[in-house]
Structure formats: structure tokens, C-alpha cells
Specification:
The protein is about 30% helix and about 5% strand. It is built from two helices and two strands. A two-stranded antiparallel ribbon has the order 1-2. The protein is elongated and about 45 Å long.
Length: about 60
């Protein structure tokens, strides 16, 4: 889990647009962020395995 203070800080409007920090909308993790799904890789994998993300299936070959 990310620090609450850093999550609150990231939610504020930055003074300059380049200071925007992308964070996972579920857990607040700043690393491993995927823009297309607006979440980190860990939350993405968990939700995809549970079948909660439409159009995403676990690959097998």
C-alpha cells in the first residue's frame, strides 16, 4: 500500500502539468502503472484473473 499522504498529494492539481503522477486507482501504487486501464500491474493481474476486466483473458499456449 502506498502512503496516504502521497496519494493525497498526487490527487491535488499540480502547479505544472508535467508534475502529474500516475497512480493506481485501486491501491495507489506509482510504479508499474498502465494508462489504458488506469491501474498498476498487480491489481490488473488480480482483476483479469477474476474476469472482472471486460475483454481481457489470461493467455495460454
Amino acid at each position: 500500500m502506498a502512503k496516504k499522504s502521497l496519494i493525497v498529494k498526487a490527487n491535488r492539481e499540480p502547479k505544472f502539468s508535467t508534475r502529474k503522477v500516475n497512480r493506481c486507482r485501486i491501491c495507489g501504487r506509482p510504479r508499474g502503472y498502465m494508462r489504458q486501464f488506469d491501474m498498476c500491474r498487480i491489481c490488473f493481474r488480480k482483476l483479469a484473473s477474476e474476469g472482472q476486466i471486460p475483454g481481457v483473458t489470461k493467455s495460454s499456449w
